[in-house]
């Protein structure tokens, strides 16, 4: 069972990932929410290639990843659910919810701590907001995130199937809530009670700092409401808001090499930039 899960896990995740990515890309063509001034050809190659870099980095440093950590924890008897008797369904449900809460607080830390923000700001430096923005994370951030996830899995003793389900949900909802897609207002209002929607998460990518520091959830929307970081709409509206951050607004910064070096560079002040 353990060997089968470890063998099949990458292929299951890849199949779901490709399916959702293709579906969201098609949805963006059919019903785009915002017009895009920076073309896909300028953004998509690097945004897609960074996924390859991130995946290779994780497999090199964490060859068993989060699902493997769950299997090892079960074998060693580590973690809460390996020490107490609990129904399988309860362990699954609690594990998914706790892991999602951990990602929410991790996200807030990456905004609050300057050196962590240097890693995370690459995600926010995208000049447009669409499905590939949900893939755009620096490999060092991905490695730190995986380390945190492995620690939470081990402490919790999360079942391997729950971890796999969470990983699939997290990847899928990240693609969904970064989509440049149009949803009926009534449907969005109901959906954001149970999942982070594109309308909700787009606020988080506003150039205005207090809007950037809101709506941190990726999967479940409850944490933002519970901990006071929920913002319903951007001040300028979804069509009027500016996507990105003040730093790195030159289209050359969309190149993969410059994206990878962003955490180690200081942006040029606007007064020193060429007009």
From TrEMBL:
<dbReference type="GO" id="GO:0016491">
    <property type="term" value="F:oxidoreductase activity"/>
</dbReference>
<dbReference type="GO" id="GO:0005506">
    <property type="term" value="F:iron ion binding"/>
</dbReference>
<keyword id="KW-0472">Membrane</keyword>
<dbReference type="GO" id="GO:0016020">
    <property type="term" value="C:membrane"/>
</dbReference>
<feature type="transmembrane region" description="Helical">
    <location>
        <begin position="150"/>
        <end position="170"/>
    </location>
</feature>
<feature type="domain" description="Fatty acid hydroxylase">
    <location>
        <begin position="93"/>
        <end position="229"/>
    </location>
</feature>
<dbReference type="GO" id="GO:0008610">
    <property type="term" value="P:lipid biosynthetic process"/>
</dbReference>
<protein>
    <submittedName>
        <fullName>Sterol desaturase/sphingolipid hydroxylase, fatty acid hydroxylase superfamily</fullName>
    </submittedName>
</protein>
<dbReference type="InterPro" id="IPR006694">
    <property type="entry name" value="Fatty_acid_hydroxylase"/>
</dbReference>
<feature type="transmembrane region" description="Helical">
    <location>
        <begin position="12"/>
        <end position="32"/>
    </location>
</feature>
<keyword id="KW-0812">Transmembrane</keyword>
<dbReference type="Pfam" id="PF04116">
    <property type="entry name" value="FA_hydroxylase"/>
</dbReference>
<feature type="transmembrane region" description="Helical">
    <location>
        <begin position="44"/>
        <end position="72"/>
    </location>
</feature>
<dbReference type="InterPro" id="IPR050307">
    <property type="entry name" value="Sterol_Desaturase_Related"/>
</dbReference>
<keyword id="KW-1133">Transmembrane helix</keyword>
<feature type="transmembrane region" description="Helical">
    <location>
        <begin position="84"/>
        <end position="105"/>
    </location>
</feature>
């Amino acid at each position: 069972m353990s060997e089968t899960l470890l063998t099949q896990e990458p292929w299951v995740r890849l199949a779901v990932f490709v399916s959702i990515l293709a579906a969201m890309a098609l949805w963006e063509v059919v019903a785009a929410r915002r017009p895009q001034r920076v073309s896909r050809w300028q953004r998509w190659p690097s945004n897609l290639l960074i996924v390859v870099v991130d995946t290779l980095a994780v497999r090199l440093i964490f060859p068993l990843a989060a699902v493997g950590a769950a299997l090892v924890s079960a074998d060693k008897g580590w973690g809460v659910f390996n020490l107490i008797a609990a129904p399988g369904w309860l362990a699954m449900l609690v594990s998914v919810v706790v892991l999602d809460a951990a990602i929410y607080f991790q996200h807030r830390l990456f905004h609050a701590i300057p050196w962590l923000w240097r890693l995370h700001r690459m995600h926010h430096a995208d000049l447009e907001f669409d499905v590939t923005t949900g893939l755009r994370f620096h490999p060092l951030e991905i490695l730190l995130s995986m380390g945190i996830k492995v620690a939470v899995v081990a402490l919790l003793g999360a079942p391997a199937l729950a971890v796999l389900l969470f990983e699939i949900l997290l990847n899928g909802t990240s693609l969904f809530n970064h989509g440049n897609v149009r949803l009926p207002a009534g449907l969005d209002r109901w959906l954001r009670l149970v999942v982070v929607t594109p309308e909700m998460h787009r606020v988080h990518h506003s150039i205005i700092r207090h809007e950037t520091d809101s709506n941190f959830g990726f999967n479940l929307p409850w944490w933002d409401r519970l901990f006071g970081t929920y913002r319903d709409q951007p001040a300028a509206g979804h069509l009027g808001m500016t996507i990105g951050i003040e730093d790195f607004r030159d289209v050359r910064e969309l190149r993969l090499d410059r994206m990878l070096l962003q955490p180690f560079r200081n942006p040029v002040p606007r007064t020193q930039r060429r007009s």
